[in-house]
Amino acid sequence: MEIDRPTALLGGLSASQFMRRHWQKKPLLIRQAVPGMVPLIAREELFTLAGCDEVESRFIRHGKAGWSLRHGPLARKSLPSPKQAAWTLLVQGVDLHDQGVHELLQQFRFVPDARLDDLMISYASDGGGVGPHFDSYDVFLLQVHGQRRWSIGKQRDLRLEPGLPLKILAHFEPEQTYVLDPGDMLYLPPRYAHDGVAVGGDCMTYSIGLRAPAAAPLGADLLARIAEAQAEALQDAPSAAAVHYRDPAQPAVAGPAEMPAALQAFANEAVLAALRDPDAVARALGESMTEPKPTVWFEQGDVPAGEMHGVSLDRRTRMLYDARHLYINGESFRASGRDARLMRRLADRRSLAARDLATASEDARALLEDWCEAGWAHAE
Ligand code: SIN
Ligand code: CO
Predict the structure, then answer these.
(1) Which ligand lies nearest the alpha carbon of 197?
(2) What's the CATH number of domain 215-238+265-380, 2.60.40.2310, 3.40.50.360, 3.40.366.30, 3.40.630.30?
(3) In what order do the strands lie in the sheet with 310-313?
(4) What is the pLDDT of residue 204?
(5) 120: closest CA among 150, 89, 94, 146?
(6) Which residues lie across from 86 on neighbouring strands?
(7) Ligand closest to the CA atom of residue 89
(8) Degrees to nearest 5, angle at CA 177 with 171 and 179
(9) How far does the centroid of ligand 1 lie from the alpha carbon of residue 12, in Å?
């Protein structure tokens, strides 16, 4: 991606300018970010998707009885007629199911893949919406069909309406209002309050959603992964090499149940030693950030017979790299030299041409074949 070239997608800013001026800082309204935008998924197809077990969906309605929320799978016949007012259907992760939607999401790869989450499609009947709220993540809201009126505000008072199934701001104070037509897009940084209401029926909005791990759960996940890797390494290590606690200076004790402070210090050091390996946290992070969502599964593929003329990653595959590793769908591999350069190219471009493959080592080819067999990649 040409990160320094002005682009319509960002209202004539380059990706670099957008990241400097707006990213995580302030909203940006972009008229005709995607000129000629039409729905990539028809209304009926979206409704069908909402009924699938492996698709995350929500149905929200606002009526006389207040707000109601139902989680999917949502049977087609349980959805009201599009002519009925004030309901909305949200379908998460559509990029995993539709190639066109996946390709649209690729336009946002000026943000690191590790930060990109998914593309959610919302369908709303006249007056439908999810109410005034804020999100913990950045979002690009691309209008695709019909119109939506967005009211937005910085909002200091983040208190929520009590007792509702949805997070609705109790005292929303909108500062700007924009009506978005198909092709228009609104970028909002995290915690910026917003309320999008469909103007007329058949309103479809695509939310390009970001993700940002929260420190405490990320720490817990990484510690569990490090512990698992450590346990595996121990199984291979000879027990003669084990360093046991020694206490030649231990005096006799009157309170035998008291934990020796030296043993606590020894334990502390044992834990820190496991974390001191500079690769341990990096590896756990790479595996964690490429872990497929629980609803994702891959169809077993065919091992390419004979020459591979190219290879491309499956749209569900998450692949990242750092200076020493490749991470793919929750697994890590050490890589260096020419193979590492090749695999990083695959991760960045999501495909390799025949001429790229010509330089691959036997090991790299074998790995690519494994990934094709697992359905993580496809040979051409
Ligand atoms: C929607 O598109 O209706 C909801 C998206 C959002 O407010 O984040
Ligand atoms: Co929102």
Answers:
(1) 1
(2) 3.40.366.30
(3) 351-353, 310-313, 377-379
(4) 98
(5) 94
(6) none
(7) 1
(8) 135
(9) 25
Q: Alpha helix locations (H) across 196-330?
A: 215-236, 261-276, 278-289
| Sign of the alpha-carbon dihedral angle for 91, 93, 99, 103 | positive
The CA distances from residue 198 to 19, 122, 126, 135, in Å, are: 29, 10, 5, 19
Q: Residue 57 gets which letter from DSSP? A: E
Q: What does the alpha-carbon distance between residue 3 and residue 113 come to, in Å, rounded to a whole number?
A: 15
Binned at pLDDT 50, 70 and 90, residue 236 comes out as: confident
Which ligand is closest to the CA of 180, given by its number? 1
Start-to-end Cα distance in the chain: 23
Q: For residue 245, how far is the Cα from the chain centroid?
A: 44
Q: Residue of the nearest CA to atom 2 in ligand 1?
A: 122
Q: Kindly report, residue by residue over 296-320, the tens digit of the pLDDT.
A: 999 998 777 777 889 999 999 999 9
Q: Where in the chain is the domain with CATH 2.60.120.650?
A: 8-210
DSSP H helices in 154-248:
215-236
Mean pLDDT of 335-362: 94
Strands 185-188, 116-124: parallel, antiparallel or unpaired by DSSP? unpaired
The token pair that represents 173 in the structure block: 């104070």
Per-residue tokens: 7: 């682009």
- Main-chain phi, psi angles of 215, to 5 degrees: -55, -50
Which residues contact ligand 1 via a Cβ below 6 A? Answer: 88, 122, 129-130, 135, 139, 194, 196, 205, 207
Single pTM value for the model = 0.94
- Average pLDDT in the chain: 95
Instruction: Retrieve residue 367's tokens.
Output: 């790995």
Across 90-113, average pLDDT: 98
Q: Put the strands of the sheet holding 325-328 in their side by side order.
A: 319-321, 325-328, 331-334
Among 207, 208, 210, 211, the mutation site with the greatest number of ligand 1 atoms within 8 A of its Cβ is: 207
Architecture of domain 8-210: Sandwich (2.60)
Task: Record the tokens describing residue 122, joined without a space.
Answer: 């919302």
As a whole number of angstroms, the distance between CA 367 and CA 374 comes to 11
